Amino acid sequence: MKAYLRLFREVFVANLASVLEYRISFLVQFFGMMLNNASFLVFWLVLIDHTGPIGGWGFGDVLFLWALSPAAFGLAHVVCGNVRQIGALIVQGDLDVYLLQPKDPWFHSIISRTVPSAWGDLIYGFVLLPFLTQDPVKIGLFVVFTVTGALVFVGTFALMQTLAFWLGNISGLAGALTEFLLSFTLYPETVFPQEMRWVFYSLIPAGFLVFLPIHVLRTLDWIWLPVILGTAVGLCVLSWWLFQAGLKRYESGNAIGSRI
Amino acid sequence: MPGPRAKLRKYLLAGSTALRNRWTYPADIAGLVFSYGLFVFVFSHLWMAAYAGKATLAGYELPQLTWYFITSELVLFSMGNITFTNLSNDIKTGQVAYTLSRPWSFPLTSMSESLACALGLVVPFALVGWVTGTLTVGAWVPVSLWQVASLALSLVLTFVLQFLCQFFLSLTAFWVEENAPFLWIHQKLALVLGTFLPLEFYPADWRPWVEATPYGWLAYPPSRLAVAFDPGQVWWLLGGQVFWIGVMSASVAALFAAGRRRTVVQGG
pLDDT digit string (tens) for A67-91? Predict the structure, then answer.
């Protein structure tokens, strides 16, 4: 465990150093993403000004959604920025470089990159937080749900990407599922028909990502906390297990590569 | 020296080649159409929830707002980001040096390629939008032939304006290595100012500011013509689009002239 923490720390520092090498590029992406997210709040502000709460969600609730979802997505891609590249690594036979090293290839491959714009997503969520609540308990919960949300993103994306062991090039399918997951985490759950909401708690786990956490943040209904934590960890374990099973089908591309 | 007809044929050929290339990967097109359908689905439900207990919002009824969104997203999805992505890559890799040396106008060729691709994609998007809209709020029925003609013209003008905006932004690659954030911000401004919501939703004192940018003239004119056709407004909407096409053309020409001088520095 200690060895993995050390690896995580070293890789994280190296990733950060590599993106900071191009400071202007990093800053442009960082602030660009924050502005990108902020522009949607204008839409919601104008809309709710005309309609009042939509499906029981006022502007404050939507603000929570738009803080938690980008923060979780940002954390997932700051720490595990390579998670949506696993499919390409598998298809192109480029996993060798991770398989030849002593640490777990699933863990090592997903943490081996950071996405510069994701830093903007992560910080954006926390910039909004003081406008949403000053309650230390809710701030603590927001931090916890950012971590669980990031785990749900990582677990789900890794799960989709791992299917490449069996299906080959899954970029189209993975792209569509990613679009689904992102789309449904950014709009109030209650605008969707009752009969389709089960999807948010199964195929597209947007419910565990934002809807249940926001319910807990609103009501402090603690009973859901272990459910959210369990699902987040469970999804990552499931994707790790599937990856191990898929490795038996892996074919190397025989490309010479190095990872320093 | 080729005559105007030969020149036109050259650009038409560039456009048709780009369109054929675009359709080489039907799965890619299917993914885009799927995303468009998903957005229309999400927003049609959002509008239904927003209209609970209300007959109109900012003068629009539910079917009007739903069809407004279907039209406005159709415009942005058909155009996509191909212009920006391809041109930015060509500039960064130096490929643009080869393209510039060919016997044609680089901006006109790019425009011909982008418009051909956009017009070729309108059909599948429109089909998905029409089915989704008809199932959720009922069919869209044009009020007159003049509405259809002005809507078609406005769509083409939107494509041209969107092309010019993307071309302008992609030219920043001559100076900034990572210029994608400029596209993100452009996309979001385009979405917020006239795509998600008609301009009538915004406070009255915002309107002149929005109209003083190209964003008020991208998705809004064709979408407005589609759902709230007013013959007295047609020339104002089309004229505004033509005016902004002129402004953006001049801006693109100036930036392209400045950027072109840096091609040598880039190494080609």
Answer: 999 999 999 999 999 999 999 999 8
d(CA A12, CA A40): 30
pTM of the entire predicted model: 0.85
Residues from chain A contacting residue B202 (CB–CB below 8 Å): 46
For residue A33, the chain B residue with the least C-alpha distance is: B181
Question: Of B35, B182, B188, which is closest to A39 when you measure between CB atoms?
Answer: B188
Residues of A within 8 A of B49 (CB-CB) are 54-55, 188, 190-191
Asked whether the predicted pLDDT for residue A100 surpasses 90, the reply is no
User: What are the distances in angstroms from CA A80 to CA A97, A118, B34?
Assistant: 17, 10, 27
Alpha-carbon gap, residue A13 to A10, rounded angstroms: 5
- Helix-helix angle A23-51:A116-132, to 10 degrees: 40
Q: How far apart are CA A187 and CA A235, in angstroms?
A: 23
- ipTM value, please give it: 0.83
- Tell me the mean pLDDT in the region B69-91: 88
Q: Would you say residue B206 has pLDDT above 60?
A: yes
Are B170 and B83 contacting, i.e. CB atoms less than 8 angstroms apart?
yes
Residue B1 banded pLDDT, cuts 50, 70, 90: low
Of A46, A172, A187, the CB nearest to B201: A46
Q: Please tell me if residue B49 touches chain A, with a CB cutoff of 8 Å.
A: yes
For residues B87 and B79, give the distance between their C-alpha atoms in angstroms, rounded to a whole number. Answer: 14
Q: Give the best residue of A21, A28, A119 to mutate against chain B (max B CB count within 10 A).
A: A28
**Radius of gyration of the CA atoms of chain A, in A:** 19
Residue A226 exposed, middle or buried by CB count within 10 Å (0-12, 13-18, 19+): exposed
